[in-house]
Amino acid sequence: MSGPQGKAISGKEVAQHNSRESCWIIVHGKVYDVTEFLDDHPGGSRIILKYAGKDATAEYDPIHPPDAITTHLPPSKHLGSVDLDTVLKVEVKVTDQEKARQERIANRPPLSEILNLHDFEAIAREVMQEKAWAYYSSAAEDEITNRENHSAYHRIWWRPRILRDVTNVDFTTKILGFDTKLPLYITATALGKLGHPDGELNLTRAAAKHGVIQMIPTLASCSFDEIVDNAQPGQVQFLQLYVNKDRDITKKFVQHAEKRGIKALFITVDAPQLGRREKDMRQKFDAEDPAEVTENKQQDKVDRSQGAARAISSFIDPGLDWKDIPWFQSITKMPLILKGVQCWEDALQAYDAGLAGVVLSNHGGRQLEFSRSGIEVLVEVTRELGKQRGLKFPNEKFQLFVDGGVRRANDVLKAIALGATAVGVGRPFLYAFSSYGYEGVDHALNILEDEFEMNMRLLGARTLKEVVPAMVDAASLHSHVVSVPGDRLYDSNYEGMQHARLREVKAKM
């Protein structure tokens, strides 16, 4: 649609609507009236008012899924197309802070000096924009769960075997019946363009080269079809699903994904409400709203409590229930996996419901604080499903996956030994492309391949079938206060939580 008479709206007309009383913006050549949305915008009104009457596409793209604005604004606020030749150009002022960041980017070490996944995180922290780092790295409340996800692996020790011919080691496997060259998959993470202009496409391309599976997120910065279109012929992709309150939207998306060749559906079940991610939230208050908001005390009426995360997730249905499972089974033939299971009872119910598996996960420590790590839950799930249903793991008919906290192939192999089919890796790949683009993800997967080969040889395991429970001592896994050696690389990358700060410090009289 265009203007009232079918003509494109002129940039001059759009430019007249540049105030709180009447605020129009342009995104991807379309004009939207966002006046009534200003106080509801999770990112605050300031950033919208900065682009009032102008083209906001460059600011919009990295932090919104492609259809966010069309989904959240009623059709009456979609005003039509704009004549781009007449649009005012936004003057981009490069701040001293941005100049310093660009200098840090220019001084990145060569990839040959990046020796492990921790190194990518260290560089990403230095070169990413603050709001992007805050979104990727933030976790729930005091971030204890986030750190526990990693440290839990330190409570598992190896019992390697010796004098086995490990000239050749093979760490290929199958996930839900599909071949993968590594016992891991690239798990779903939102808003890839926050870290790099190509966003999730960096992951798609690297996954194809290395023969691993990418899980496409519902809340990707790139469109779903763009990600699928960039896959190589025969490349296997899964889909992570946030269930929409409008089940028709969910049904259309799922069935479209199946038609496009998606091989499995991972339904996120641990996010009826978003966790309180305070690093992300604090970005909102650092970017203070204009005086016209604060002086009128409007800020107290604006709920921006979830930072960038809330901006993209208000559609998620908190009413999702076990009774919805048969409905999902009726709308698709794809294998269904529940992502975010945190106790054996729910894993057992998923098995009894005929699902293909579960991901034992606490959402990267971003949801319920003090929820246990996936690797800890794995031990109780294999034990109890063995007792209750006689299952042995890994199990082709009901597959267990783990994610959260993984930084080494050594971590992945511990999960394999304890019964997991494969492990999801998320943040490390975000940091890899945020610091080095596609080449970063490619190098990260090369590092992991080298680590798998070395660890398999040192374990005395020639195939993943030989990585068995007898090879690990997990006796301390459930003891959350046991002393473990510190991980200096991980700890040095962790950015501690901050208190609220004075906005302006004046000398005491």
What descriptive keywords fit this protein?
single chain, alpha/beta, 509 residues, 3-stranded antiparallel sheet, 20 helices
Q: Sheet bearing the most strands, described?
A: 8 strands, parallel, barrel
How many helices does DSSP assign? 20
Strand order of the largest sheet: 7-8-9-10-11-12-13-14
Kindly report the average pLDDT value.
90
Structural class based on helices, strands and sheet pairing:
alpha/beta
- Strand count: 15
Q: Based on CA inertia axes, which overall geometry fits?
A: globular
Q: What is the alpha-carbon Rg in Å?
A: 24 Å
Task: Estimate the strand proportion.
Answer: 5-15%
Query: How far is the first residue's CA from the last residue's CA?
Result: 62 Å
Helical fraction: 25-40%
- Uncertain runs are 285-306
Structural account:
- With 509 residues, the protein is α/β, with parallel strands linked by helices.
- 36% of the residues lie in helices and 11% in strands.
- It is built from 20 helices and 15 strands.
- The protein has helices at 11-15, 45-50, 57-60, 68-72, 96-106, 117-127, 130-137, 144-151, 201-210, 224-229, 247-259, 278-286, 291-294, 307-311, 325-331, 344-352, 374-389, 409-417, 427-459, 488-493; strands at 24-27, 30-33, 78-81, 157-158, 173-175, 178-180, 184-186, 213-216, 237-241, 265-268, 336-341, 357-360, 399-403, 422-425, 472-473.
- The strands form four sheets. Strands 7-8-9-10-11-12-13-14 form an eight-stranded parallel barrel, surrounded by six helices. A three-stranded antiparallel beta sheet has the order 1-2-3.
- α9 packs parallel to α19 (427-459).
- The longest helix has 33 residues, at 427-459.
